[in-house]
Amino acid sequence: xxxxxxxxxxxxxxxxxxxxxxxxxxxxxxxxxxxxxxxxxxxxxxxxxxxxxxxxxxxxxxxxxxxxxxxxxxxxxxxxxxxxx
Length: 85
Hints:
Blueprint: H1 3-11, H2 27-46, H3 55-64, H4 67-74
Helix pairs in contact: 2-3
């Protein structure tokens, strides 16, 4: 492997444990961090402050949420709001 890839693997960090979501199913954890990121971003931008502290939430939800969910969200199909039949 190249040195760049080895460095990325060495520095990789996944989402830490969150006591609010102790179960194996991390769907709500993913969704809550997604909401927290956007709320934080909106709040800090409204106050003309740097939204850099919100990046933690972005990293966590990107770590927890499957890529297909993020793609669907970009297309306007928010998976959490889908009607289950």
